[in-house]
Design a protein that fits this description.
Structural class: alpha+beta
Strand order of the largest sheet: 2-3-4-5-6-7-8-9
Distance between the termini: 64 Å
Low-confidence stretches: 6-27
Radius of gyration: 19 Å
Order of helices and strands: HEHEEEEEEEEHE
Number of strands: 10
Length: 209
């Protein structure tokens, strides 16, 4: 009886892994074994200085950004709702024929970030429309580092099931489009030391924006 129960539990775990892996593959997300890290965030974080338009220089694959160019992240906030940050991903998608764009459209996705604990203003719970509500009431998005004027590094991580699997996203943001941060190598070195695998970063095209 005990052996049968263990076999059933193993089957349930394997089926769960397969279902989550299938969903991740369809959604173009980075899903790996393990638990989410708990990285340090920007000290003395000033949300007001962070707000505005950021250009995505590099990022992990995400269902929203996959296949997009000229991608921007826009952060805004209502004066009377300091707990909430409005987030918008916007960019362009091209239909190409033999390497040439024959049709281009603008794409936008809206989300909201919530500061769970005002003591840690650089740690948010983020949800975009249509996104599965993993860890909705827990911190899943971190502003790791920023100088507010030229670069920022953000990281997100959720666990879609009780088993040790995590889905990650990360972005290198710049105020000016297609400008490599001077400290990019150092920023990635820090991320690696916090348990974030930077090999998943992809350069975002900012050509002909």
């Amino acid at each position: 009886m005990m052996m049968m129960r263990m076999m059933m539990q193993t089957i349930v775990v394997l089926v769960t892994v397969c279902l989550v892996a299938s969903w991740a593959q369809q959604q173009y997300v980075i899903m790996t074994p393990g638990v989410c890290p708990d990285p340090p965030t920007q000290s003395n974080f000033d949300i007001k200085r962070f707000l505005g338009i950021w250009n995505v220089y590099e990022c992990f694959d995400t269902p929203y950004i996959f296949g997009m160019t000229c991608v921007q992240m826009v952060f805004t906030q209502e004066d009377d709702q300091t707990q909430y940050i409005r987030m918008q991903i916007r960019g362009l998608r091209d239909v190409e024929f033999f390497g040439h764009s024959i049709w281009r459209s603008s794409v936008e996705y809206d989300g909201v970030g919530t500061v769970i604990n005002s003591t840690y203003p650089a740690e948010w719970s983020v949800l975009f429309g249509g996104q599965p509500e993993f860890d909705r009431d827990n911190v899943n998005y971190y502003v790791l580092s920023t100088d507010y004027d030229s670069f920022a590094v953000v990281y997100g991580c959720v666990r879609p099931s009780p088993i040790a699997i995590k889905i990650e996203t990360a972005m290198i943001l710049t105020r000016e489009p297609n400008v490599k941060p001077k400290t990019l190598d150092f920023l990635k070195y820090n991320m690696k030391s916090w348990g974030i695998d930077t090999k998943y970063f992809n350069k975002i095209s900012a050509f002909n924006c």
